[in-house]
Design brief:
It contains 13 helices and nine strands. With 291 residues, it is an alpha/beta fold. The protein has a domain at 4-143: Rossmann fold. The strands form two sheets. Strands 3-2-1-4-5-6-8 form a seven-stranded parallel sheet, sandwiched between helices. A two-stranded parallel ribbon has the order 7-9. Helix 1 (12-24) packs across helix 8, helix 9 (209-220) crosses helix 13 and helix 10 packs antiparallel against helix 11 (245-259). The protein is globular, with a radius of gyration of 20 Å. The N and C termini lie far apart (42 Å). The structure holds NADP nicotinamide-adenine-dinucleotide phosphate (NAP). NADP nicotinamide-adenine-dinucleotide phosphate binds at residues 8, 10-14, 35-36, 39, 54-56, 74-78, 85, 104, 106, 143, 145-146, 149, 178.
């Protein structure tokens, strides 16, 4: 049986992947790379091999990937030094003779530096290149924008004001649920035929914020509308309201990407792997907002 190692295993996506893997394969075949072993106590109890390591420290990664057939490489959540961290992971994978890398990348329309979402995609473009040049067989999973990110983007104010306030225009997004991505990844990790492929790992339906306002109106019984201000007005409103600048820039940057149609394509690859439709956004919003 193939040996699988999951990095970022104590994060949200990684935890879901490991728990699903446990249902499909013997824990003896599963290893995890974690920064903090105290967060991996349950995995240890389940019989999973724990490797301690940090993407930022190359020496801590060396030997961690020895004997691994499939490395499920979760991209860092850091916003700085992303390229260096990922470089270390790929270098260690080469050194340890990993056979396959399955990398969680990001949906995009182009790889150019002037892309409105290059602040998110630049490190992914770089990492994909490194992986392809490494000689290791790869599967690149270009994840859609998480549906799970929606409550953060929407905030809670729309309940009071009756309006979603976001500078995303009327453009559509293939919002993709993290647990669907985890389930799809496990299908890939436990089957063959995905070597040297790049998949748009995104949902099979598109929504804009007018659609989301209608869904939220139906779910809550309130009249919720959608207002799309200019990016500048949005940023200054949030900054005046005391939202930290890093968050403002992240929300405004993602919204600008949506406004410029960076996320307006869906794909059937994920739903085919799941053997069902991707999770409906309405189902997700119902679970979050309707107790
Ligand atoms: N598609 C989207 O919309 C979207 C949205 C958000 C994030 N993402 C990307 O998808 C990834 C997975 O998402 P998620 O929700 O699972 O994020 P998450 O819960 O923040 O998990 C990130 C994982 O990466 C690990 N990690 C971060 N830096 C590391 C380092 N230097 N060395 C080793 N491990 C490190 C974290 O370790 P600890 O457990 O020790 O913190 C954590 O386990 C994120 O890291 C990010 O790159 C995508």
């Amino acid at each position: 049986m193939e040996k699988i190692l999951v990095t970022g295993a104590t994060g949200k996506l990684g935890t879901e992947v490991v728990n699903l893997l446990l249902k499909k394969t013997d824990p003896k075949n599963i290893s995890v790379l974690v920064r903090d072993t105290t967060k991996a106590v349950d995995f240890k109890k389940a019989g999973i091999t724990i490797q301690q390591g940090d993407y930022g420290k190359y020496n801590s990664l060396l030997n961690a990937f020895k004997g691994i057939d499939k490395l499920y490489f979760i991209s860092t959540n850091a916003m700085t030094d992303r390229e260096i961290q990922h470089e270390n992971v790929v270098k260690a994978a080469v050194e340890d003779k990993v056979k396959n890398i399955i990398y969680t990348s990001f949906q995009r329309k182009n790889d150019l530096e002037n892309s409105p979402i290059s602040f998110l995609t630049k490190a992914h473009v770089y990492t994909e290149k490194l992986i392809k040049e490494s000689g290791i067989a790869y599967t690149i999973l270009k994840h859609g924008l998480y549906t799970d990110f929606l409550p953060v983007l929407l905030g809670n104010l729309f309940f009071e004001t009756g309006s979603i306030y976001l500078p995303a225009g009327n453009n559509k997004v293939a919002f993709t649920l993290r647990s669907d991505l985890a389930e799809g990844a496990v299908e890939i990790l436990t089957s063959k035929g995905h070597e040297n492929k790049t998949y748009n790992f995104v949902a099979d339906k598109l929504y804009n914020f007018y659609d989301i306002a209608i869904i939220l109106s139906q779910l809550t019984g309130k009249n919720i509308t959608y207002i799309s201000p200019s990016n500048e007005e949005y940023k200054s409103t949030l900054l005046k309201a005391g939202v930290p600048e890093a968050y403002v820039n992240m929300f405004a940057g993602c919204s600008e990407g949506i406004r410029q149609n960076e996320f307006d394509f869906c794909d059937k690859t994920l739903s085919k792997l799941l053997k069902r439709e991707c999770t409906d956004i309405e189902k997700y919003l119902r679970e979050v907002y309707i107790k």
